[in-house]
Protein: Putative outer membrane starch-binding protein
Organism: Sunxiuqinia elliptica
Amino acid sequence: MKYMNKYIVLLLGVLMLTSCEDWLHVVQEGTIPTEDIDYTDSSQMYAPVSGVYANARRKLAQWEIWPLLNVRNDEVTKGGGSVADQGTYLDIENFNYDAVKGFWALNNTWNAYYQIVIGTYNNIELLNRFREHLTTDDQLVLADQYEAEIVFHRALAYYMISNLWGDVPLIDAEDVNFAFPYRSSQAKVRAAIHEDLDFCITHLPESQPVNKGAVTKYTAMTLKAKVALLEGNYELVKTLTDEIIANGGYRLYEDYYNLFKIPGKLCSESIYELQFTDFGNGSGDQVYGGAWFQHQGPRNNKAPISGWGFMLLEPEFIQFMKDRGETKRWDVAVLESDAVTPAGDNINLFQPDYMDIKAHYNGKAYVPKSQITEGRNDYGSNNNIRILRYADVLLMNAEAKVRVGGDAATPFNEVRLRAGLEPISNPTIEDILDERRAEFSVEWGERFNDLVRTGKAADVLPGFVAGKHEFLPIPTSQEDLNPNLLAPVQE
């Protein structure tokens, strides 16, 4: 392992050293020299763990990842100031994959995810240096918990990598080819994810009262259920989500309008989110999601409610929401230009010349001016980025019970009632997929994943060809660095 950072540059093109920081209290997240750490002091043992959270927060919030995850579905188009503004996203949107292999955003996304993976190995190595000096069973149990918090992020990164690219390398420092890894089959990658998550479920606590928002046993179970859903293992989905519902202590956040805003940070529905803060100060240091929020902000607006105008909602999705009579979810999911928000912010008109309608932005990136700390002028300042939430657990549970038997109506209607919709006594798979579309719009590629796993993508997405367009091409620069990526997949 000690040689990984020396040679893994051949895979990634960028050498990454993870940071070790206190929980959300260090803004300049540089590398702490390992020689400055006293490994005999167990009170410092959380530092490698905190470094992984910080690294995941940075990498997963890279703005260029967000369009890659979402523009292939039927909810958003790339947006921007013109059709040529980051126009390669349109090739991805239209499944013209031959034109995107050299796209900088594709390579950056690959790098970001694999930097998370490698960071977990590096920080486990640091954690093991503390282990050498531990003397009590309680300390050893705590070290296992800390390792599980690190390992969860490896599983999360592989989940996202394999969803985007399918057959991808599994990093193994003990493999003589680790600097030039071969691709593993998606099934093998998912098996590794399950193995990591089983370790997490065994060693993570049921709650994190000290480090609020840190991963728990139920965070790992939720991710494992999502992997099982993609695999069609509905019995496992049912078992996992039943336990989360019964024992996880989660509930849907009642103030739905504020679910993705400041009051909803780390709320009762949150299972995992990337944490940011301005420390309650109107100036000075902040841990900020930056361009992730800014690229989705409305054009032609005054700060702090302003941005680049990307991720514009498609007319088909807008009509879908209107046809369903969505009002509560509309106010959350849709930020309409030439309108006033329920929070009182004016959103100026933006009429893109490449669309037949005025701009409708992703409302889940919007924070009202009244909630932003006075003195801050950054769009989305002080807000978190949600990744896993309880509504997903409920709808996964409902779908599994429709498929294998059980009371699907109760979890399904819990989500509908929160959204102000009438219950459905016997929901079908189509009902659940529509509910997921309305509930998880522009969230981590959920809609595209749902269409692919149910075999509906070719019927819904113009240009999509089954067996050809499920996965993005591996970036050319990665193949140039590692020719083994062109070799046959290792089953």
